[in-house]
Hints:
The chain is 62% helix and 0% strand. By secondary structure, the protein is mainly α. Helix 8 packs across helix 9 and helix 11 (211-217) crosses helix 13. The relative contact order is 0.13.
Amino acid sequence: MDVNADDEHRARVYCSNVLRKYDLPSYILQTFIPPSARDAYLAIRAFNVSVSSVADNVSNPTVGAMRMQFWRETISQTFKGIPPREPVAILLSQALKRLEDRRINLNKGWFLRLISSREQYLHNPPYPTISALESYAESTYSTMLYLTLSSLPVHSVTVDHLASHIGKASGIAAVLRGLPLLAFPSPQHNHMKLGALERISNRQGSVPLPLDVMAETGLKEEDVFRQGASAPGLQDAVFAVATRANDHLITAREMLKNLRAGQDIGHEFEHEDDEGHNYSAHERSKDPVKDLDRGFGVLMPAVATSLWLDALERVGFDIFRPELRRSDWRLPWKAYWSFKRRKI
């Protein structure tokens, strides 16, 4: 389809409104993305909301699979320059064209990986282990950071490594935040209401905590359904999962400190050989600190995740406390100072 300026403007407004309504932290943090990459950022984040909201809008697995296939075909057509009349696809198509004019390419495989990971947990099966939850977060939240870094462009395995830890922390926290509405779904709970909730559906309740953590803490799903916040072992299980998310933030901060000091970052990037991280010689920069400064705005989700984890700790890891589902009014200025000081 031919896209004119009015089509592009309407698509941009649509994607921005999607974030403002369903993923407020991402809407707020767009200000730290350079203007040349902001359309790509909006499209990537609105794409994530659209794919993750499929669970709310389907009534059976077959329809869910069809919707996921629609998004696969949409991405394929968009990368060919012939997007369907869908606002996210239109904005992404225009962003891709402008990036290509600057010889910048986004990895289509990363979009497809995000779809596949969302589809795997479309109907809320349990995560068998906390490592499986980390893998899910890597394939969704970390992948969005990789895509945004590519749009700048920042081609740095070191910055990707930082983004991996921050994305894992953000993804784990999002799953925790969505737990109450997954356990007790109701029609009035819209997907991701109040920002960055994870996989909220209107079907039978489920408890999206890793099975190995539930076994270690003695938590039973039926106890959560019967007793809610008073379920034996629930707060211990939430604490264990939240600790893993916080560990990723701590690791990212240590890496950042070591990098600034000119030291080794401390450990290998386990995903360095995965698709998209094998940058060519002419793409790679030899100055990781400079790359970090250029891409630092992309890492701002660390601030939103840290604020929420701190709030969770203040309420004693009672995941059902309603204040945990409200947006944090401090995020804009906390993110501003974090960006200015280059700290997360």
